[in-house]
Structures are given as C-alpha cells and as structure tokens.
Fold these 2 entries.
Entry 1:
Amino acid sequence: MRQVVQAAGGGEVRVVETPIPSIEATEVLVETTATIVSAGTERAVTTLARSGLLAKARARPDLVRRVAEKARADGIGEAVRSVRDRLASELPLGYSGAGRAIRVGDAVEGIRPGDLVATGGAGWANHAEFQAVPGLLCARVPAGVPDADAAFTTIAAIALHGLRLAEVGPGAKVVVVGLGLIGQLASRIALASGCDVAGVDLADLPLQTAAATGVRALRESGEATTAAVRQWSRGRGADAVLICAAGRSGDPVMRATEFARDRAQLVVVGDVPLGLARAPFYEKELVLRFARSYGPGRYERGYEEWGVDYPAGQVRWTEGRNQEAVLDLLAAGRLSVADLVTHAFPLERAPAAYDLVATRREPYLAIRFDYPRRTGPVEDAEAADDGPPAESATSTEYSLAGKARQVGYPRPVARGAGSPGRRGDRIGWIGAGNFSSSVLLPAFRAAGFDRFTSVASASGRSARAFADRHGFQGAAAGVEELLDDDDIDVVVIATPHSTHARLAAAALERGRHVWCEKPLALDLAELEMVERAADVGGGVLMVGLNRRFSPAVVAARRRLAERDGPLSLIYRVAAGPVPADHWYGDRVEGGRLLGEVCHFIDTCVALAGSRVETATAVPGRGGEVLLAEDLAVTMRHVDGTLSTVAYSSARPRACRKELVEALAGRSHLRIDDFRELVIDGVSEWKGAQDKGHRAAVGAFLRMCRGGATDVTAELIASSRATLAAAASLGTSLPQPTGSPRSVATATVPVVATATATATVPVVATAPVAVAVAKEPAGIDLADARRAGTEQVGQPAVPAARGVGADSVPPEGQASPVLREEGEPTR
C-alpha cells in the first residue's frame, strides 16, 4: 500500500510503499477512501522535522533531557547512535479520515466488515491506503453521509470538544479567534448549538467563508475589533472565547481577554504559546482551559489501545462519542463541511499538497486526499503489494501485540523442516524499533551475519523504512509471511515482551534458529511452550541476556572459577525513573521485574557458575507488586552462593547504573557498570562500556553453525528463576496498598497455593515426560497466557493491547521517541 511520511531528520514529504498493517483484537483494518489534511497541525510536524538540531532541541527540551540522561547512563556514543537512528525514522502524517472496515478485531463492538467508518488518531488514521485504527476511534457513518464529509469527523471533534469545555448553550455569545479549518468547524458547530458566533481573523478567505454561514466575521484591527465585539454582545463581552489560532505568538490568548466578559471561559484549542499577563485574568476572573485533542480518552492507553470504554453515565462525551455526535450533525444536515474543501489531491500528489501548506502560495482551508477504490478483498491488495501468494494457504495471522487470530483454513506446521541444512546465513527480523537498529543490528553485522532477508513489524511502515535503511532485501506483509518464508534460517525477535514466547515458539516449530530478546516468557506456560517447540523443531535458541558475555563478566568468571566455596553477590542497579505512561507500567508487558531484572538474575547465575535453587522478591511499598519500581531479589544457588539484586528507580547524578560486588573467601571483585573489573584492588580489565551484545551474537552465530548449545539450558534456567521470583510476590492475593506482603522461598514442587507462600520449581530434580501435540492453527494463545499466569499466582490480564509506541505524540509535535516495538532499557 501507499502511505505519506515525513522523515524525522528533514527532507520532503514522500509517498512510500509499505506493507498493509496488521490489527490487534481491539482494532479495525480500514480501506481508506478519504482523509483530510489538518494544515496547522501537520505543518507544525513537517516544519519541526525539517528544522535543525538546535531548533528541535528548543522545541522539545524534554527530549534533550532524555538524550542527556542516556549519554550519562550508556555513554555519549550510544546516545549519538540513538539520536541518529531516531532522526532516520519516518513520521506518518494525518489523523482524520474515512473508509470501509475490512477486518474487525475480536474485541471491537458495533462495527462489522463492510461498514463505512470515520477514523481518528495520529499514528493510526494516517494518510495511507489502509489504516489500522483502535475500535474506539472508529465511528460508523450514518446513511446519507458521503465518505468525503465523514473524513472531517475527527478534526470536527476537536472543535466540538473545545466548545464543550466552554460550557455554553443556546443564546451564548461565542468568539472564535482564528478561522482556519478548526475555527470554521467550531463556528459552525456553535451555530448548530444555538449560539451566536463572531469570528476574528486577518485573511479574506476565512472571513468570507465564515460570513457565508452566519458568523459575524471581523477582521482583526485592534481596538476597532474589540469595540465591534462589545457592541455585538450588548456591551457585556463574549461568554466564551475559543482560541483556534496557531503560531509562535501568544497574542491571540491575550486578545481573547479583551473580547471576554467578566468570568468568561477562554479555551485554547490551537497550538499557541502562552505569554500571559496576570492583570486581565485577575480583573475579570477569567477561566483559562486547554482542550486536549478530541476529548476524554485521548492519550489514555486503556481507552485507545486496550479498548476499555468509559461508562456514559460517568463520562458522557469521550473522543469516540464526540465523533458520533459530529456524524449525527452531518446526517441531520445541521453541519455542512463540503464547501470547506479548497483543494483535493490524489494520494500520489501528496508532496504537492504539503508544498502548498508550507509555502501558502495560495489561500486554502481544507485539503482532501482521495484514494482509489478497490473492488477485490484486502488479500488481493496484499498480493499486489507483495507478489504472488505462497502455495500453502495462510492459516494464522500473528499479531505483534496480542494473540493469534484465525483468518483462513488450518495448515499444518512442518516442524523442523529443513533445519539440518540451516547455517544461520539468512535472517528474518521481527521488530523495527530503536534498540534493533542502534544496538542489536550492529551487533549482528559485527558478529558476521551478512544476509538480511526480510523485516516485519506491527505497522508495516516501520518495517519498510527499517529494510530500506539497513539493507534488508524487503519487508514482509506480516509476521506469518516472514515465519513461513523458507529462505529464512534465523528469526530475530525484538518486539514487545508479551509477544516473545509466542513468536519464538512459532519460529522454532518451523525449524528456524531463534534469537529472542529478553524476557523469553512472562509465565510458566509460555516458557514450557517455548521449550517444547525447541525440543521438536531442530533450530537453536538464544535469549538476549547479554551481560554474561561481556568482557568484565567473562574475565570475572575465569577468576571466580578458582574459588573453593560459594560466593556472596550483590548486584546494585540504579535504573532511574520512567514516565508514568511508560510501558513498564503495563502489566501485560511484565513490568520491571520480568522485563529487566531478568538481566541481572542471569548475570548472577553466570558469575556463580551455578543455577538458582530458591528465589524471593520483595517489592517496595505502594502500587501493584508485579509492577514495582523498586525491589530486591534474593537467591540461593545450588552451590550455596547467595546473590541479591537491589533494583532501584533512583538515578543519582554521581552514580553509574550498575555495580556488581562479589566476595569469595579473602577475595573481593567489583564490576563497575561494565566499564571496569577490579579484583582485590587491582584493575583486571578496563575499557569502553561493553554489556556483551556483540559477543552474545557471536556465540549465537557459532551455535547456528553447529557449535555448542549448552548456554540455552542456562538461559532457560535463568528465565525460570525470574518467574519464581515473580511468583514469590503472591500477586494473586488481594492486599491493601502499603500493607506488609508475605513472601516465600521457591522450592522444587510445583504448587500454586491459596496462601501467601508460593512454591515454584526453579531446578527440576527428575525428568518429566511431556506428550507433545501440535496446537491447532489459530489457537488463542492468550488463553495459555492466562492459564500460566494463574499458575504462578499472577492476576489474569486482557490479551488485547496496542503496539504503537509508548504513546502517540500530541498532534502538532514530531516526537522522535515513539515506541515502535519493544524498546526495553538495556
């Protein structure tokens, strides 16, 4: 399919070919028929993208702070590589459109394939031939409303939400400052609601268009305009002022204070800076409010990504219900939008449309993109994009953030097909995030991998961009296509944590060699599923627990191998805080314990040279225990070694992230953030920070070429130890926030108890016979997740979740820190 993108590092807007996106259980795949350019918002995105680094830094100081923090934690070189990779990424443009629903996720209600829907959301409702949009950001279009009109719905919802915040009704005097597209829509909706409306602007076209609908159109001319508003409002001033202007000046906000009556509502809808003077607000006791996009639910992951709607009795007008209200106004003829379109372009001429927006060489209001109508099913479009279909019928579509969904006829998986001849030369890569490009891919190249065949990602767009940027032969239309490609020997999985086990098992079953980023699994059922697949598939398995391969740990293990008795290990981690909406706070992704502390548990295992026998985790107070930001994990190893991981969300300025200390008899060993190894006061190794990524990939390459695979069992054992630590939290027990929590040691028997003690095996004492039966194609693997989660005492969670990034940036901001796929702290 074709999609409009802007490179984050600058350059012109382009129309690129990308795979059709996949959908999650809470999403709808829409074949686009029309989209509307929100000129002010999208001009801000493209302008920021084309600006220099200094201008970007001034516009986004929050990102500058993140880069500085990364440089301090991981080194300047790593921070520079991360920034360069972000600047090489592509930003999707657009957020308001309409089209036909092609596929509907299992958890979406009220929409069926074939329905005409209005779509919204930056990063979802893009200027693209197909859109994967959350179900709660899709609204069915009533009969009689044309596609081209329905495409205005989300932009009009912004105006409607601003009007709701103004708390006005019939007869109210409303002034709209700025009569661009959103200002025009706000004026028309206010008129439809029975308000009297005056609009203020400088340009002829907006004033003429507004006047034609009954708005009192006023050209901004200072005192004369203020006097006209006074006269129009019978000397009182406006009851509400909607500031729909956009620009670098804060003058529109201060001008609004002059139009307003005493105790009026001022609502900032447009993107304007604030340069406020106190006196006007104090003297009139004005209320200043900000409209956050199209209503409640915006930027809330639970609402947008997980599909959890708000009860109408509690939140009457969510962003989705605002979309419905706009469509009802269109259907009733109380809102008209067709005359707002001043320019229409076919999608392939999108660069010309953005040139018009940038140069403003002629006046415009709404710019519409029109899309070709396809007559066949979406599968025909996929075939056109990606070549002829494979001979075997696809049976299961693998989602990168949820479950497998049945989309065809069951097809048997050829277990281990071709694996004896696979040397690991040809790589299929799943996940196109920043960690993949800045750390993992360079490590694979440095280790000697040189045949990079295909990439798959959730959005399709990121897969194509990743393939182009890093020299892959192409981008797959989806994960299933990549997994079924027999030209691929090795599958690299660098996706959100909740998808690792399922994708690893699917690749191993097909006989592929698998590199899976940590964690390998989020519960025992997932771990056992991967182990079974590894046993029968024939490929090798490596988990991205890389610290055991670092120069410091390798040298330390050589010295510690000479000891006579057990160790005492303390691993201190100053991980630093993460934003409140970070995906570490999403229980579906496993939190910090399962998602990051697994690294440190495995490093303790490697240093001790002995597997974990018992594991206990103690969380800090407050919040959900599995998602604790501060915690300690204490382990006893088979050889008697005692190790403790002290994990903190603090990050003092004078403190490096990781420090490992080991005591063995009369010896003392210290690893300082993987920059230096000191033994008994003597520096044994020192260099640039090296956490072992390249050495780990080198070991994986040797495994693919027939080398020893003993490390796989150790990595699986460390994964089991991490799950035992999580089980010791007793998260199945309801406990008040801040109350003492009982913890327990993990022992050999597998017993899920109803008490505060959890007994979970870390080391199996006897082999267990397992009858391996193929799971039917299309099985809901989320059910296996829930079953396994309950085994270890963790709460069951919904399988439905989104992929996009940590969150979509606010319209009008070009954020280079979107989370495309799993972006863990490394």
Entry 2:
Amino acid sequence: MLALIGSAVGAVPQEADGLVAMAAAPTNNLVVSGTVIPDSTGRATAAGSTYMNFPMALSVPSSDGGRSPRTILTSYNQDIDSGAVDTPPRTLRSTDGGRSWTTVGNVPLTSAIRRSDGSILAVDFRTRPKSVPVPTDTGTVTPTTTPTTAPTTTATATDTSTPTAPATPTDTATPTDTATPTDTATPTASATSTAAGTTGVTGTPQPSGSSGAEAAPPVPSNALTTPHVQVLTSTGATDFEVSSWVSRDSGATWSAFTATVALPFEVDLLVFHRSIVEARDGALLATTYAIGAGRSSYDVHVVRSVDGGRTWIWLSTMARGNDSAGDEGRDEAAMVRAADGSLVAVLRTDAPIYPAVCTGALVGAPLLITRSSDDGLTWSTPAPLDAPGVDPALISSADPALVMTPGGQLALSFGRPAARVLVSQDGTGRSWAPLTTTYTARTSGYTSVVNLGDNRLLQLGDMGSNWCFTGTSPRPVGIWSKEVNLLPPDPRRMDLRAMVAGGLARISTNMTDSLTSASGPAAAVDGSVEPDAGAVRRAGTGTWTIDLGAANTLSGASVVLPVAASSANVSVSSDGVSWRPVAQWYSSGRYLSVTDRAFPAGVVARYVRFNVGSPQALVELAEVQLRTLPSTFEQDTVGAAPSSYVSVSAGSQSITVQANGSGWWSDRAVRLTDRSSAATAILAKSLPTTSTRTFSMLLKPITLRCAVVMTLNARKGTAFQKGLVVSVWPDGSVKRWDGTAWRPLAGAGRVRPGVWSAVRIQASTSGASVYVNGVLLGRVPVTAGTTAFTGVEVSSGGTTPVGDDVMMDQVYTSS
C-alpha cells in the first residue's frame, strides 16, 4: 500500500565534507579472463592458454576531434614473472571508455607517452647490449574482438621507419640539443644527482669506453636471489638497443624501430619501466632501472631523448640500491609532471613475492617519493611516502603508477596487499588524502591508472601472477578494471559532450584549425586537456560559442588554456544578440588544468561565448565546462549512491547512479528501485532551514507499481513534520496528501512511463504551487503549522505492491 513511513527528517546527515578523496565503483569489470594449467615450473601448458598479469595502460584523446570518449590502451604479460622468459605482451584497445576491447597486437606499454604531435611512443621493457641480435617479428597486426578466454599470440607489425621528432611546444624556446646521439646538452660537469643519501653520478654522459665511467664496487658475496631480479643480459655494457614502436592512429596500428641508449658507466642489466614525460624544452625523459656492473641491486636512472625516442642518453640517477642481502634496491619508478611544475617520482623498494602477499599478507617495503625542480637533472633524497592510512611497515611497494588529472589532482595507484589509490588534491604530491582500497581479491599488486575524464579514473589490475598460486591445478587469470571518481565531485556540471553529441547543444566557432586529429570544436567538451585536444585557431584571438538549446540557470564555468600567457572571457546571452560578460581569466600564465570561475547570482542564458586571446599566433581552448544549479550526477560514481545525497535503501532496494546515456541528454542519472515489501527506498537531502523552498527534478518512470513520492520536510516550531507530499501514480496521475487522503492534482497520463517529465514545487509557509512540464497543476496548502522548510526526500511509494523503478536527473533544491 502507499504508506507514509515515519519521517526521519531532522536526523538526515549533512553532506560529505570533502575529506574523502575518491569513490570507487562497487564492482569491477573483466577486461579479459581465462584459465591457466601450469606445469611444475609454473609455465602454462594447456594449448592456447596464457597468463594475464601486470597490466600497463595509457589513455589518449579520441582521434575524431572530441566526439568520442578517450581511447584506452592496455598491455599485459602472457607468461610467468621471470627475467629468463621474454614472451610478448598482449595489447588491447578500447574506444568506448573501457566497456569493450579489441586486440591490436603485442606492443608493450610499460613505458609509453602520447607526444605533442599526437603520436604514441612505446618503449620495450627489456634492452640488450648492441652486440645482441635483434629478434625478428614480421607479422601483421589485425585488430580483433577480444575473447573472454586467453587469446592466441598475434605478431606486431614491423616497420624500419623511425619516428619523427615531436613538435617543439610553441610557448618554449627551441631545445639547444640536437638529434645526434653524441649530443651532450645534458648535465654540466658541476651538476650532481643525489639519491638515497649518497652522491649520484656526476658530469656529462661519456661515450662507451670513456675514462669518465663510474668505477664498479666489488661483487658482494650475498648477491640477490629474489625472483624479481631479472636475468643479467651483459657483463658490463654502456651501449644498449631497445625495441620501440610508434602509433599515429591512437594505437590502432604500430610501426616498430630500434632505439639506442648510451650510459656513462657500465651496467649488467638495463630496463625501461613505467614513465616517459615531456621536458620543458620538448625533449623526452624516461625512467629506467639498472644493475651496475658487478653490483647486485637496482638503481633508478633517468634518460633523455631529443629526437623523439630514437636515441636516449643518461641524464641523472634518481635513487641507488645498497647491495645488501635480500634487498632488490630501488626500481619501478613512476614519474609525472606535478601541478607546481616539478617532476615527482614514486618508486618501489623491496617487495617480497609469494602467494600470501597476493591475498593480503602484510609485508614491510615502503614506497619512496622524490622530486626534481630542475627537470630531472637532480633529485631530492628519496623518503618514505607519508600519507593517511599508509603504514610503511604494512605496505609492499609493488609498481606504483602516477597520473595527473585534468582537474589538477595527482593520483597514485599501487598494490600489495590488494589494490589501492591515493590522491594528492593539490597535485603536488606533498600532501595526500586518506588511502582508499579499490580491490581486495587475489592480485599481484601490479596496477595502472589512466584518465577517463576531468575527475574520472580507470584503474586496471590482474587476478594474480604465477607466484600467487601453488601447485599445478587450473588457475583463473585475467585483467580487471574499475572506475574511480575523485571527490568531492561537482554535482552541477553539465554534460556538454553528451548535449553536443545528441544535438541538443550546438557549437559555433572560428577556432576550427587542427594541430592533430584530436583537435576540433567539439574537443573542447570531451574531458581531455592535452594541448592539441581542443578548439584551435592559428591567430591571436578566437571565439567559441555554445547554444544550449534552451535557457539555463548557470552558476559558473571552467576552462583550460594551454598556450602561455593566454586570457579568456565569457559572456552570456538569452537571444544570441545582446551579450553580458560574467567571468574572465587573465593572462597571468598557463591554465593547464581545469580552472573555475563563478558567475554572478541569477545568470540565466541560452548562449555562452568564450573569447580567447594570446600574444602568439595561436589560441587553444582545450576544455570548457559549465555549471548549473541542478544536480546532474555526471561526476558521481556509477553503481554507487549519489554523493551529495543521503540514500536509505537495503536488500532488494537500490538507489544508484547509472551511466551509458541514462540521463536527460547526459550520461548519468539516479535510479531508484524498490522491490521490498518491508521498507521504503528514500533519497534525501538536508538543507538550511528557510521559509521558502523550491524543489524540481526531471523524472522518468520505468515501472510504477505503487508510486513515487516527493516530500518537502518542514518544522512546526521546534518539531519536525511533513510540509508537503506530492506523488505520481502508476497511471501517470499526480496527487497530494492532505493529512487524511490523497487529493488529485492532475489526471491519468500527465506523467508518462519512459519519458522525462519536469516536476517543480515552489513552496512557502503560506502555500505551494505544483508544476509538471511547465503547466501549473494547482496552488495547494502546506501542512498546517509549518513555520520553515528543512530537507527534501524522494521515495518509493511504500511496502506493497512492490516494483517501483524510476530515473531522476537535474535535481534542484533552493537553499
């Protein structure tokens, strides 16, 4: 029956205070999965079966000018974790935000970057001394749909062409370095890289055999035997080769080439791992780790390329191992450009591997953090990462991964035990919000994290490596993904990309030039902030206007302006003729992450125009956001309750954010489902006490068996009561509760199933007006004695009959 459950108003908790940094989706998705039957050494024996572990990932803007979601690439290892096994990885590609994947070959993404010209550079994990023959692979890559079981190996296309050097940023001086491998425009003889409390390698990189090579210490008797240490590939080499790949179509196809690496000292092993970033002068910086000649533990080094990744030369030593027994040293460094312009790196120390670690055993091996203020030339002494919830004695530091979000926050993903995420909300890595655990099932702890949007991340991990299991019984393996939303979200951001894609909103602009295939007018609303992934004009000024299709109440805007010394202003209009300026960004520097401006109160407009200028013959609008007063849920976590509301549901009830175009001209909306005969599902919001209240929302009934009920909670003096209760019934009629019975406001069919309807209530202590789709249904009294309004509630109809199922979007409450 349609019951009015005893109200909990007045006891409704306040909204989140923002101390929690993120919300992970309650479930994870399988990217690929299968079963491995191992032999006594752990190798897969069943025909066609492979391991699926150690995912590495990269996210890049779509290549259609921002009309599609970001493209995500991931590669995973297909064999056991061993330096003696060099099985090619499997590479997958998604163009729909990680919902489906296709196979694009076996290009490792252990070290990868999207360069300023829009191409992707990937560098192999393993290197080889120059005298070692290069393996030959001449197959052709043909994208195929990813199976749910282990795929068979597909060879990678081989191409002897080398990549062109990335374009020099238009706002910096041209690098003085040349593309010559012997170029020495790196540290001067007086520069010193300091790491781990010891003096780093000093001076300009020397060619092979130079007297400037660092002397190697004697080999200790207690050399490492941990399985993580790779098999040595040389006996003291300075010149190496490494397989590399370039893609110019967002990872759909790849061309292979061989790059070289020159060190000023001898090493027995050199590997590229995790990070490539762009230097301020346009060069590339990559993290590597190596075992020095005669040494037994890893050191982390940074190498530099001025020719787009064809040649690499040593730049600095980030951290050193100590060659002690049972200590693998310093390795697996993740490096990123922080919000303050410095380079920040987080690296692994010793991280023991055995089955119990994969299921939650606590072992001590802290993550270390270091930073460079001179673009990687010198580094601070690495120190244990200090963050709420991170106990160095209870953390195993496997393979950290870093990503800067478009909103300027820094996210760190790592594992062992489980999989976890930390967020530095100021983007510097100097302070961190509390730790969040995102995955607790069996996993090797190797994870990756990439951007999906301005505050949306996709974390990937595995279901275990070979050392996560014992015996020779069949083992489930696979790669999982999970969406992570950073908090506090902006519940009022409009989904401009969906509005433009659906035809509700239209863009007009003279910023139609192109830097890469990611450029275009619609790229300004695609959630990407890469310099080329936006609206571009090769002139000193540009104008970009969006027609929202109808008048909207707007509270603010955000932009990203990647060209140095750019400025912008925004004006609004109701008719596209008369314009009113409402906000401005001054030419005080680059706005590289999403930068907000509030509008004056009461701005209502259909048209919004951004005027952009720069002192250069180039203007770029990499991202535009608009905020409105209603809650749009576009930044809430899919599968979870909306963050700015209180959700009361249990068992067969649910109140969750849904995606995939669920909203009104947007991706997301809230779904309330109630199949319980014992309780009512309630979505509530606590608000400041006022004498008036406006409540509105868009409502789409999927199925109504009882009703959907909207309540304005109120006070009578100091006591709580229901100020007004309005409901929509299964036949589409609208009624109000007068304290004794339901009184009709509109007949059947006023609210139709499967169709969005706008419901609005404007109330004061003397009465209320109820509207549906702009039509006034009537002026009605509020509950006798009402002296003020508190919060609002939307709920299912009651206990029986069960089956109420409705969608809600654009929820607005006045404060």
